[in-house]
Every structure is written in structure tokens, then in C-alpha cells.
From TrEMBL:
<protein>
    <recommendedName>
        <fullName>G protein-coupled receptor</fullName>
    </recommendedName>
</protein>
<feature type="transmembrane region" description="Helical">
    <location>
        <begin position="197"/>
        <end position="218"/>
    </location>
</feature>
<feature type="transmembrane region" description="Helical">
    <location>
        <begin position="154"/>
        <end position="177"/>
    </location>
</feature>
<keyword id="KW-0472">Membrane</keyword>
<dbReference type="InterPro" id="IPR019425">
    <property type="entry name" value="7TM_GPCR_serpentine_rcpt_Srt"/>
</dbReference>
<keyword id="KW-0812">Transmembrane</keyword>
<feature type="transmembrane region" description="Helical">
    <location>
        <begin position="41"/>
        <end position="63"/>
    </location>
</feature>
<dbReference type="Pfam" id="PF10321">
    <property type="entry name" value="7TM_GPCR_Srt"/>
</dbReference>
<feature type="transmembrane region" description="Helical">
    <location>
        <begin position="75"/>
        <end position="98"/>
    </location>
</feature>
<keyword id="KW-1133">Transmembrane helix</keyword>
Length: 266
């Protein structure tokens, strides 16, 4: 999928909607005039990305050694996609905008967004340093954001946000119902064992919901800088939080991953 989008990148960059040369030649001058460096946020993103990728390694090793379960297979492949997405949303751009380096900024967007086949036929997401996030608009003077509306992305985010929260809510309801059906003596123990499940469900649901809704909102309506940064951080957490959640709350995965790298006694 990445190769498909990259193959058609030249034709996309040559279209009028992405014609930077109509304003001024492409190059570093665009970053100087239209970009903005955010050192603190850039350092945070790089550090978070590096730590996340490192933590994913033992998780991947542990999951990869037992792929007999369908659940483990799904978690393994989701982890691979998450690791690619983390590279895209935690990379340091140094104040770059689309027209300062169209190929690089578009390639990073493809890397972070290539998990949807429908994106082969729609506007590509592009990083903009002035806004500290990714947008469908390249922010070329003379063009408006209305020219780059990506409805499939908006529909996807709304559906995923609503369905994932609904499924997690149903999971919690099922656990509560099962907890009521057991004896009072065992109910306390079951509640303690189910607490990590509730926390995991709430954490994953919250970051996915915030990231999905903010990205839809800010690509249709003007959003304050704080909201945009919150959406970017939520996107980072939606892909980067699983290894932290696994190690903190999921005892079986934590022991499995640590044992796989020779740290089973921790």
C-alpha cells in the first residue's frame, strides 16, 4: 500500500492543488517564511517515540513466539502498524512545511496513514510545522482548506471512534454482569482481577476517541493551537500507549515479554 501511494506521488505533486512553484520555488525558503520550529514539542516527540519503539521490541518478541491464538496474531500485527505510525507522528521536522520538501513530508504522511486502502484515492495527509500536526491541506497561499476535504477519512474516524468505544463499553458491561453472577466470597477477587481490564479499556478508548474527533474537527474547522497539539499527542498515544499499558496492567503479556528477553524474574 505504501508503494502504491509512493508510485502515484509525482503525479499528485504536479497537480495544481500542490503547485508550490506558482508562489515561489520549492526549498528551504518556504520553511523560513511559513514554517515554525517548536523545540520543546519536537524533543518530547522524539523521546516519546524512541522509548515507545524500544518498549515495543520485547512485546513483539513475546507476541511473535506464540502466534497460535487469533488474539495474539491481531495484537502482533497491530503492534507492527503502531510502530510504523510512531515513526511518522514522532519524527522531528525542524520547521518544515510541505513546499520546503514535498517528497519527504508527503512520504511521512503516507507512512503514518497508509493503513487505509481508501487513502490511495484521496488527499494525502501532510505535516505542517507551524501547526505542529498533520493536515490534508499543504497550506499553499492562494488555496483554501476546503479544496482538500477528505470525507472518507472523516467517516472512518467517526465510525472507528464510536464503534471502539461501544465495544469497550460492552466488554465492561459483560464483566460487570459476570461479576454479579458469582458468589460474594469470590466477587472481591474477581473485581480486583478485572480492574486492569477496565483501566485498559478506558485508556485505549479515550486516546482513540480524542485523536479521531480532533483530527476530523481541525481539518474542517479552525482549531486553537492547544486543541491541535492535543490531537497530535492523542494520536501519538493511540499508537504508543499499548506497550506502556501491557507492561503496567497486563500481567501475562508483561511476564511473557520479559521472559522472552531473559528478564522473567522482574
Amino acid at each position: 500500500m505504501f508503494a502504491t501511494q509512493y508510485e502515484f506521488m509525482p503525479s499528485m505533486l504536479q497537480s495544481d492543488a500542490y503547485n508550490c512553484s506558482a508562489v515561489m520555488p520549492m526549498g528551504p525558503a518556504w520553511a523560513e517564511q511559513h514554517g515554525e520550529k517548536h523545540v520543546e514539542f519536537g524533543v518530547y516527540s522524539l523521546v516519546f517515540g524512541i522509548i515507545t519503539e524500544i518498549l515495543y521490541i520485547p512485546c513483539m518478541i513475546g507476541l511473535g513466539r506464540d502466534l497460535r491464538s487469533s488474539c495474539i496474531k491481531i495484537m502482533f500485527w497491530l503492534a507492527i502498524l503502531d510502530m510504523f505510525a510512531i515513526i511518522a507522528n514522532c519524527i522531528g521536522f525542524g520547521g518544515a512545511v510541505f513546499c520546503s520538501n514535498p517528497v519527504a513530508t508527503t512520504a511521512v504522511g503516507i507512512l503514518g496513514y497508509s493503513k487505509l486502502a481508501i487513502t490511495n484515492f484521496n488527499f494525502q495527509v501532510i505535516f505542517n510545522s507551524a501547526n505542529e500536526s498533520m493536515f490534508f491541506s499543504p497550506f499553499i497561499p492562494g488555496h483554501t482548506t476546503d479544496e482538500y476535504v477528505n470525507w472518507p477519512h472523516a467517516i472512518h474516524n467517526m465510525v472507528v471512534a464510536s464503534c471502539s468505544c461501544t465495544l469497550y463499553l460492552l466488554l465492561c458491561i459483560v464483566l460487570v454482569i459476570k461479576n454479579k453472577s458469582i458468589s460474594a466470597n469470590n466477587r472481591g477477587k474477581r473485581l480486583v482481577s478485572n480492574t486492569p481490564v477496565f483501566v485498559q479499556a478506558m485508556a485505549i478508548c479515550c486516546v482513540n476517541l480524542v485523536a479521531a474527533l480532533i483530527y476530523v474537527y481541525m481539518n474542517f474547522l479552525p482549531a486553537p493551537p492547544g486543541v491541535i497539539v492535543a490531537g497530535q499527542v492523542a494520536w501519538q498515544l493511540s499508537h504508543g500507549s499499548p506497550p506502556f499499558i501491557y507492561f503496567a496492567l497486563n500481567k501475562s503479556i508483561r511476564h511473557f515479554a520479559l521472559k522472552s528477553v531473559g528478564l522473567g524474574s522482574l
